Amino acid sequence: MAPAEAENQTSHNAPAVNAEAPAVLQILPTLQTGGVERGTVDIAAALTAAGWRAIVASAGGAMAHEIQRVGGTHVTLPVDSKNPLIMRKNINAIANVIRTHNVGIVHARSRAPAWSARSAAQKCDVPFMTTFHGTYNFSNPAKKAYNAIMTKGERIIAISEFIGRHIEENYGVSREKIRVIPRGVDTESFNPDAVSAERMIQLSNAWRLPDDAPVVMLPGRLTRWKGQSVLIEAARRLARDNVRVLLVGDDQGRTGYREELEAQIGRIGAEGIIHLTGPCRDMPAAYMLADVVISASTDPEAFGRVAAEAHAMGRPVIASDHGGARETVIAGETGWLVPPGDSDALAQALRTALTMTTEERDTVARRAIAHVREHFTKPQMCASTLAVYEELLPRK
To answer: Distance (Å, rounded) from C-alpha 376 to C-alpha 361?
Structure first.
């Protein structure tokens, strides 16, 4: 299907909107699953609720229908491609979207589409901005030059103070262009009072959890840097047979790594203790089953959504002491920070977490929930992002 045909098809069923309202085009590779995708949908919903028009361009995916559900328009383009020829063709296709929908701001959320989107925005003389979602590997000058497109926006949203400093220090960007807007947790869904006992029982039965076993949970896709192997080793050092350690996440086709983890579990004879559950569709209920939540990432998390979601549910978190975790976890108050990759330190923190009294756990829960609701909610993220859009609108 040609880009123009895809655009017409996806916008055909879009709700009627005020054609004079300001329009923002968000652009990202796909709308499958993940924090970038969820944030895109959240901002599209906030735009339409504020009377703006929300246009999203991507190569499609399972979440594309959510753009239309919240009142936005989805345009299907091959912006997930890193092929230079396709990226060049995307410039005209994006420019056509800008003109067709009278777009006032182009907001790129990933590197490959950002290269095309910036050229299209320049071609149409509309403001271009970006969200810097990660540290992005820059092991060589060519890679760093490729990443630098994310610093070319008239405004750059950094998803944590850590990322804001990273942009300044590594790309020489003036702080005046950077707006730190942490990712937002949906505190209506991630709310202990919103999870029924039935949901928890259903999930507990599916995972075959004993009633009296403390649960240690590491949510995250099965990829090496998320630190599942560090937790497995920490569980060996913890040496408690009554604990259940759950590695919750999809292998996303990384069957080799999953097999490595299963082999590691087998070597320490922990098949009855440590379980790879696969993906979970009800994470609020999953967090409610956990006594402690782990974020053992060996590379810095740009933000640390697991820690924020777990805290929103009143759960203590043990996280690696780097990156965005230093903002989402208050060491000694809402959880613990341990050196990255240090399984012994992680085991020691687990001993402390699992021996807390009921009163201590209640105190941590209150602090954790208050911390998230003060700093990391979806309404805060959306309001701050729309404020950045308003900074750029006068030019148009």
So the answer is: 21
Contact 58, 27 (CB under 8 A): yes
User: What residue type is assigned to position 22 of the chain?
Assistant: P
Residue-by-residue pLDDT tens, the chain, 396 positions: 344 434 444 444 444 567 778 999 999 999 988 889 999 999 999 999 999 999 999 999 989 999 999 999 999 999 999 999 999 999 999 999 999 999 999 999 999 999 999 999 999 999 999 999 988 888 889 999 999 999 999 999 999 999 999 999 999 999 999 999 999 999 999 999 999 999 999 999 999 999 889 999 999 999 999 999 999 999 999 999 999 999 999 988 889 999 999 999 999 999 999 999 999 999 999 999 999 999 999 999 999 899 999 999 999 999 999 999 999 999 999 999 999 999 999 999 999 999 999 999 999 999 999 999 999 999 999 999 999 999 998 765
| Contact (CB, 8 A) for 373 and 386 | no
Let me know: does 129 contact 107? Beta carbons within 8 Å. yes
d(CA 210, CA 318): 23
Residues in contact with 252: Cβ distance below 8 Å, sequence separation at least 6, in sequence order: 221, 222, 223
**Residue-by-residue DSSP string for 196-209:** -HHHHHHHHHHTT-
- The CATH class for the domain spanning 192-375 reads alpha beta
| Region 3-184+378-395: CATH code | 3.40.50.2000
Prediction pTM value: 0.89
Six token digits for residue 220: 């995250």
Domain ranges of the chain: 3-184+378-395, 192-375
- The encoded tokens of residue 90 equal 């995307």
